């Protein structure tokens, strides 16, 4: 084993795919299993992040439901319609008979071409490591046979299938983790409306609808991710969020593996949860002190499928890879949303983006999966360059932390989003480390060692001819000892 000191960092040549656990890590795992969490945020926040989530980096988000039938405006179709949106009102007047209701769309949501195995295969090829499905959006329609949502679920109306069950099995069969999105509130549930009328002094909805549905989801489908939403109208005390999470971490069948986000009531986002979303399409562009996730849409205008979507509305591969690379560099995961059609298909443009992502990760995944933030994130000289590093040990307590003085690291990766003129890449933040020893630089996907030189604090790396390179959107350099 090679042990070399680089300024204050050590490099070791180790297997990058190693998932062995150190004695410290095994102690942490035992802590997760044995510690009984109190129903208060201070104690809940001490729970170490399960390692799988930080290593996964890439997830797929699916917004699918009754709103996919009109496929117009967005997944907020019903709320915007009732709110008087003129475009939606004109759309309905032109295309549907008088007195047509949102509920009338449900029988048309047949999902006749839904093939969960085909979906799972696509997601596997995309390079994703987990999949999150909307088990219930704000309209209250569930994609599982909710025992508290009579005649307003996909098992009784429309597909006549338990969508959550079918997709969870297919996703797990190909080796991916499965998770569920679940909205806490429902726009027009009369029980929720009554609590709201009472200024949330009563908890009829939380006790008789929300809790039973959440526990059914956890017990029946055992998700690895619970992605909460719809929390913003009331404080977490109404939702009984801490009580639920204490049960989830202490007693549930997924207590050791599950991760949850931060949408559990007014004032909670970006403060509590296993990982933070903070806001839709959240990408701060800088290292965060807590594990976080950037959930974004390939269709820039909607989470649900839109029949009016144009090519210009979709994220280009360069834009998609910018989100992936910048997010992972700054300690986050990406959750890439595609909205399936009412028939149960994934639009070809979404499929193309996901397959291209998978091809890119097939070459450059070493610079993404299981990596950690490095001392620098975005190069101070070349803003097209982002850094990650690979460490042999996982920091359960602070997975987004920069390497400490005596941390060992296997390699540093410099990922660049634009191919430089004359095939010469100029970067600065790696220079002092290259000064300190003898290293090799390789372009992932190529076995050739690249030449480099330092002048005035800037490192110039001589790249091969771009025409000979496998990928065409973004590229990754691996810097390691010779």
Automatic annotation (TrEMBL):
* Residues in Glycoside hydrolase family 29 N-terminal domain copies: 31-366
**Which InterPro entries does the annotation name?**
FUC_metazoa-typ, Fucosidase_C, Glyco_hydro_29, Glyco_hydro_29_N
Matching SMART domains, A to Z?
Answer: Alpha_L_fucos (SM00812)
Query: Record keywords: Acyltransferase included?
Result: no
Give the residue range of the signal peptide: 1-22
Gene Ontology molecular function: alpha-L-fucosidase activity
What Enzyme Commission number(s) does the record list for this chain? 3.2.1.51
For this UniProt record, the keywords arranged alphabetically read as follows: Glycoprotein, Glycosidase, Hydrolase, Signal
Q: Hey, which family's this protein in?
A: Belongs to the glycosyl hydrolase 29 family.
What is the name of the protein in this document? Putative alpha-L-fucosidase
